[in-house]
Structures are given as C-alpha cells and as structure tokens.
Specification:
single chain, Rossmann fold, 42% helix, alpha/beta
C-alpha cells in the first residue's frame, strides 16, 4: 500500500499531491493526520527556511512504519540551476543523516503569494536574501518579492509518477 502525505504552506504542494493521488488512486493525507499505518509513502513537502515543511515531525513519529519513502519537494527555486541543486543536495543530505533514512527525491516548482505571508515569514525571507551566497536564490526571490507567482507545472508530475509506479 502507498499513501501520499503532504505538508503545504501556500497551497501548491497540496495541489500537486492531490493531483498525484487522483492520478494513481492513492489515499491523500495531510502529514499531521497520518494514521501511522505501515505503508510506502510519497511525501510532498514545501521547502521553507531551507527545510522540508513537516518532514522532521512526520519522520520522528512514523519513520518505523514507512516502507519506502519518496520525497517530493516543492519550492520556488529551479534545481536545474547548479547552485540551487547544491543547496538542495545539502538539505537532503542533512535529512538523511539526521534521520538515518534513504529516499529518492524529486523537485517541483511551486507558487507563493507574498500578500498572504505573515510579517515573520517576510522578515525571514528578507534575512535569507541578505545572507545567502547563492546568486540564483537572491535573483529568484528578488524578482518575486511582494508578488504572487506560480511556477506549478502538472506535466512535471508524469516523471515522478513513472518513477514511483515501478
């Protein structure tokens, strides 16, 4: 049995997870509502603050019940750009070391509406911009700051579906 679990901040992660669940006929569960049943998991997590939203909490409660883990991250950065790919590689390696777990990974670009962000969220983004050494990160967030942007592309799910259906 495979379940799709998601943690979404702005909605695009949930929309991707919902589309994949519909396509594959898998159960869709928000990470806080996971019942702990033993299953393979496709975890859709928004990347926020250089972390995958909800993943640490989810793994700390349910890791022993997960057969195979497929991690799908959703964020603004394009991982086809080398500096972004390296930033994600560091984040993923940290997860693997912290939880002593292996997983395959896919990344999808998401959406953000700055008007809906809290003051703290906006402060954090500003601080990350000021301290990042990644020029692509700075460019991506500078171009989108204080705007609504949507990079979601449901056609990108086809590659992920093909890899998890094996």
């Amino acid at each position: 049995m495979t379940k799709i679990v998601y943690a979404s901040k702005n909605g695009s992660t949930k929309r991707y997870a919902k589309q994949m669940a519909k396509t594959l006929g898998f159960e869709l569960v928000e990470y806080r509502e996971y019942d702990g049943e033993k299953a393979d998991v496709i975890y859709f997590g928004a990347v926020y603050n250089a972390k995958v939203l909800g993943l640490d909490e989810f793994l700390s409660h349910h890791q022993d019940k997960i057969g195979k883990l497929h991690l799908v991250t959703v964020g603004l950065l394009d991982t086809a750009i080398k500096s972004n790919e390296l930033e994600y590689a560091r984040m993923l390696n940290d997860i693997k070391l912290r939880h002593e777990i292996e997983f395959d990974h896919h990344h999808l670009q998401g959406a953000i509406d700055y008007a809906k962000l809290s003051f703290i969220d906006k402060l954090f983004i500003r601080q990350r911009l000021n301290h990042s050494n990644n020029p692509s990160y700075k460019l991506a967030f500078s171009l989108t700051f204080n705007k609504w942007v949507d990079y979601t592309n449901y056609e990108d799910l086809a590659l992920i579906i093909a890899s998890v259906a094996v």
